[in-house]
Design goal:
The protein is mainly alpha-helical. The chain has helices at about 1-10, 15-45, 50-75, 80-100, 110-135, 140-170, 175-190, 205-210, 220-230, 230-260, 265-320, 325-350, 355-385, 390-420.
Length: about 450
């Protein structure tokens, strides 16, 4: 068994405990999210004509949430802050459970819309908090070896979540699914305290002692650093282009599923099965491909796999804008995102200073993500208002994805330069990818 495990992941003895805890942590976070994701997608399809302003509310909410997040994380250690963050999400889920169970029918549309906004904010912070912890805990070299396997835990959670939803959606109320998600988030909160204080080689003890201290600084430092650092700004634009194109695909999905399914439960089941297909394929790719791809071909190639696939996907949607083609495209695109792009993108952050790993990274992963959503919602609505068809919009996406690929090549090269400089003991860690002086 140990020999077989060694073929899957290149892990050192002192890293095993942290690796498995990270695996379990990510498993329960994504399992909880994927239990409620089909509920959100069903709401989005039901109110597809209002999606553009729902995304606007999400963006504004994300801006406020980011300011609060940066202010709190500057004053707390990560072991104290992370459980508080997940228990805040749990309390929100309990409130929605009560509202869904006891609110009058006339209030249900507003509850649904509020839940759509909340899940759209929650899913990014839940994963951003996790990956921020991982990039702070593991080094650049460890990330290349271990992040692919840690992502397998999330994929397994992503498989379990849709199975739970598809099995229970016809038997229990939506509120029960929220409580299941809450229980999984509590496991995530509990797991943080079991991570080892030190497991890295060399000067690990001093680095881990520092990592357990509050970061300090001002809550807007993440934003100012992004504006002053070409590398951080490039990371911001990279996630913005990813979410811009993802939102276009999401609007196409809402449009086609609304026409293809009349029954809400049937639509929810379709979304759950779509998520199950995505996460099953992701799991297979992560186990057999991701680690080898990143090890032998490098971060840049792994990072670009999904954008290149998107070029062909949008071209196919331009030729045949039907639900079957969209389903195949979505499964392939999202699976390659989780299997290849996400682990590679997290490695890009390992060369940053600790303050930027928490503040700038959180801003990029949450507000940057939702900026792309918002631009995607506005632009898609604008193109529809101009009378452009779904097929034409797909063709417009192709050159946008081409620009995204070019940016990915630049980021991969810069990350390699920073990683090599960081390995030089004569270079201060604060000089790596640091913002240019104002």
């Amino acid at each position: 068994m140990k020999k077989f495990f060694g073929k899957i992941v290149d892990v050192r003895p002192e890293e095993i405990r942290a690796l498995w805890l990270a695996f379990i942590f990510f498993f329960v976070v994504l399992a909880g999210y994927y239990v409620i994701r089909p509920v959100r997608d069903n709401i989005g399809a039901s109110y597809s004509e209002n999606l553009w302003w729902m995304f606007t509310v999400v963006l504004l909410t994300m801006l406020v949430a980011n300011a609060l997040f940066s202010a709190i994380v500057a004053r707390m250690s990560r072991r104290r802050f992370i459980p508080i963050a997940y228990r805040f999400f749990i309390s929100n889920l309990i409130i929605f459970f009560v509202l869904m169970q006891f609110a009058p029918p006339g209030k249900r549309p507003w509850i649904d819309i509020c839940f759509f906004v909340w899940v759209s904010v929650f899913n990014l912070f839940a994963t951003a908090v996790f990956w921020g912890f991982m990039t702070d805990l593991f080094t650049n070299e460890q990330g290349k070896r271990l992040f692919g396997f840690i992502a397998v835990g999330g994929s397994l959670g992503g498989i379990l979540g849709p199975i739970i939803t598809a099995s229970l959606v016809h038997r229990v109320s939506t509120g029960v699914l929220l409580l299941i998600c809450a229980a999984m988030l509590e496991i995530a909160a509990q797991s943080v305290r079991f991570f080892p204080a030190e497991f890295r080689s060399g000067d690990s003890k001093s680095r881990d002692d520092t990592a357990e201290k509050p970061i300090g600084g001002r809550f807007w430092d993440g934003v100012t650093h992004i504006c002053r650092s070409p590398y951080l700004f490039g990371l911001f634009v990279f996630i913005l282009l990813y979410t811009l194109t993802s939102t276009w695909a999401y609007f196409q999905q809402s449009e086609l599923t609304k026409m293809g399914f009349v029954d809400r439960a049937a639509r929810t089941t379709f979304f759950a099965k779509l998520d199950l297909s995505v996460n099953t394929l992701t799991l297979l790719l992560q186990i057999f491909v991701t680690g080898r791809l990143m090890k032998f071909l490098g971060v840049t190639v792994t990072l670009l796999f999904m954008p290149m696939l998107s070029l062909f996907g949008f071209a196919a949607m331009g030729l045949m804008p039907v639900l079957t083609v969209l389903a195949v495209f979505q499964v392939a695109r999202r699976a390659s995102t989780f299997a290849f792009m996400r682990p590679a993108r997290e490695v890009l952050f390992t060369v940053l200073r600790r303050e930027d790993k928490c503040k700038a990274k959180s801003f990029i992963d949450t507000f940057g993500y939702r900026c792309g959503d918002q631009f995607g919602a506005w632009s898609y609505g604008g193109m529809q208002a101009l009378g452009l068809s779904l097929s034409t919009i797909s063709y417009i996406a192709v050159p946008v994805v081409g620009a995204w690929c070019v940016l990915g090549v630049w980021l991969g090269r810069k990350q390699r330069i920073f990683a090599e400089a960081k390995s030089d003991r004569s270079v201060s860690v604060d000089d790596i990818a640091a913002p240019e002086p104002a």
